[in-house]
Amino acid sequence: MSIERYQLDDFNALGDPEFRLLVRYFLREHHPVDIINPPKRLHWDEAEPWYMTLAEAGWLAPAWPREHGGMGLSAAKQLIYMDEFERFGAARTPDHGIMLLGPLLIRYGSEAQRAHFLPRILSGEHIWCQGYSEPNAGSDLASLRTEAVLDGDEWVVNGQKIWTTLAGDADWIFMLVRTDKSGKKQEGISFLLVPMDAPGVTVRPIDNLDLQDEFSEVFFDDVRVPKDNLVGEVNKGWTMAKALLGFERIFLGSPRQAAHALSRLRLLAGHVGMLDDPCFFDRYTQLRLDLADHEALFEESADRLRRGETLGADVSFLKLNQTSLFQRITELMLEIAGEDGGLLEPIEGNRDLNPMGLFLTARAATIYGGASEVQRNIIAKAVLELP
Amino acid sequence: MSAHDISEAISMIRESAAGIAVRHDLGRIRKLRYSVPGFDRTTWRNMCEMGWLALSLPEEKGGVGLGMTASCALMEELGRALVPEPVIGATLAIQTLGDDQLPDVLSGEKMILPAWQTTRSGMSTSDPIPVENGTVNGVMRYVPMAAGADAFVVATANGWGLVDAHSPTLALDVAQTQDGGHYGTLTFSGTPVSIVSDTALAGPVAQATLATAAYLLGVIDEAIERTLDYLRTRVQFGKPIGSFQSLQHRMVDLSLEAALTRASVADAARIWDGSPGSSKAYAAVSRAKARASTTAMLVTRQAIQMHGGIGYTDEHDIGLYLRKAMVMAPAYGDAALHRKRFAQYMPDHAEAAA
């Protein structure tokens, strides 16, 4: 089907199975074949054709309302959209503008900010990165120190951000900056938009354990931006950023990452001739059970969303469990690979036999998006009501 | 019945259970334990009057016709209160009985318990005993609460056979269990038997297995709640010990396992009710029992540890949950057995094709 056929006025009017089929067809017909299940996060030059296809179809922003150029999907339809994308192995684009900045501007931005920035995200003209973490503000994000001081009609920014994903590809960065040092640390933080080509911005890529340069350090040295680049009220940045941690958190607990890893474990076990080994088989079966039970737990939360309920702090259970399961699977992969598990390149050059890459990727899963230990702190207080 | 009606019925079942399964007062449980038969016939009749045995029995047989989702809700409440009455066994038995035995059993007048295990971990190796001239010879083991039964329904080569518990040719040996109940070993020596049905063993046993998983879920949830209460109130080093991160994180991990068990049991009940007796349903039941058995042992062990010295005393109730888990985790197959069965019922390629 031509891409215009996928531009519907009201996706929510479709039944769930019809919508699922539509997404499936769309991916099959329009997703570039060479970047299915990419072994690493794609850079802009690799992801651009796919991003522009999504843009052309109007499929870039499933959660944004129609009036702002999004698909306006209900929670139930968003779950289907994500599920099909993950099942297919669709490549993730540099999507911070779509996933994080867009919803924030829609809710808290000025009319002018929305009119200027939202269309440029949808056209691919602006690729955004996120400037939250700092060398001394990781899990304790609210202690961040990168500072913005008002000088006439401009904010002057000084400081350093780190773990900034795809900073080198981005045209803009949205960042949390300190605008007040006097009160509670959460209450002196503002949300600022900064062009990456502004004088005084320096990007230094960092190689990760998988030897990929997907994240960077970003330095700010007397960077000047117009006063109007601040979103919402001064010193309300923390509250705004937190308010947006909505039901999307469920996606960090999606079973697909672990399911993909398990399918690769099976492939590898066949390759190394372990499938009939009873010791391996019992451990493999345990992981299959773990995945099935995780899927059941995930579906419980998804069902609550479909019924129109909101998710509480217990959604953190999903992230905690999914990431640890993902790791256990890759650990067993590495173990059965024997000496090959120490190779730098995929086994026999086969991209699907790369336990090392998956094992290293999985290390990050229990750190990003709130480390497992932080998730446990949140659950202990908010769900278990421990003192 | 609509989904709404079923969820209404389940709330009613849970509320009705609270009257008998008193989770905040284990006095009755303590009084009954290590006695014979280890449960109370008046309570039993009350349970029968509330229709607990008949929940999943079809309406035309005098049942409620609710399915495993409702049964599991009930079993969870019973597990929370460590109820010793043999609801799981009796429910298995009624599925093997003929219509003429049912009224007395459903009213609680007569208690019939199933005898089908010839060996330890019997699910996969059970072999029925032969019938000759209307009598049976042989041994059946691991019959929970056997000393309280009026009759047994025995898995024979000719089908399910009814045997009078007071038959002089039937010897009953009783071995007490950690939770205060017992297993009976039945030795038949030319014991008269009347065949009542040829119901296959697998379906009713799978339902009993899932019911056991749900009972364990109740044990798990209550042990966690009691431990959380303890952590909130027990003060050491000048503060509630629940404020210590090492204990908080451990409780989060245990609660996660409990949440997985809940999801697994609910999933299995839904799958069973949707396609009872299918391979998919047997696999889901094994998955739920494997999870419940492992989690129940993990949670109750840790519950003792976090209670410290008082947890090691027999006087404190938390130990009753560990003892119950020790008995119920292996009943109807332990985790290792059910992992194996899951792999048999749901081979790898079946899942890949789904």
From TrEMBL, chain A:
It comes from the Bacteria. Keywords: FAD, Flavoprotein, Oxidoreductase. Residues 129-223 form the Acyl-CoA oxidase/dehydrogenase middle domain. Transmembrane segments: none annotated. It comes from Sphingobium subterraneum. This is Acyl-CoA dehydrogenase. Belongs to the acyl-CoA dehydrogenase family. Residues 235-384 form the Acyl-CoA dehydrogenase/oxidase C-terminal domain. Its cofactor is FAD. PANTHER family: ACYL-COA DEHYDROGENASE, ACYL-COA DEHYDROGENASE FADE29. Residues 40-125 form the Acyl-CoA dehydrogenase/oxidase N-terminal domain. One of its GO terms (cellular component) is plasma membrane. GO terms for molecular function: flavin adenine dinucleotide binding; oxidoreductase activity, acting on the CH-CH group of donors. InterPro entries: Acyl-CoA_Oxase/DH_mid-dom, Acyl-CoA_Oxase/DH_mid-dom_sf, AcylCo_DH-like_C, AcylCo_DH/oxidase_C, AcylCoA_DH/ox_N, AcylCoA_DH/ox_N_sf, AcylCoA_DH/oxidase_NM_dom_sf, Mycobact_Acyl-CoA_DH.
TrEMBL record, chain B:
Residues 210-344 form the Acyl-CoA dehydrogenase/oxidase C-terminal domain. Gene3D superfamilies: Acyl-CoA dehydrogenase/oxidase, N-terminal domain, Butyryl-CoA Dehydrogenase, subunit A, domain 3. Residues 8-84 form the Acyl-CoA dehydrogenase/oxidase N-terminal domain. The keyword Flavoprotein applies. GO terms for molecular function: acyl-CoA dehydrogenase activity; flavin adenine dinucleotide binding. InterPro entries: AcylCo_DH-like_C, AcylCo_DH/oxidase_C, AcylCoA_DH/ox_N, AcylCoA_DH/ox_N_sf, AcylCoA_DH/oxidase_NM_dom_sf. It comes from the Bacteria. Its cofactor is FAD. Keywords: FAD, Flavoprotein, Oxidoreductase. Belongs to the acyl-CoA dehydrogenase family. This is Alkylation response protein AidB-like acyl-CoA dehydrogenase. It comes from Sphingobium subterraneum.
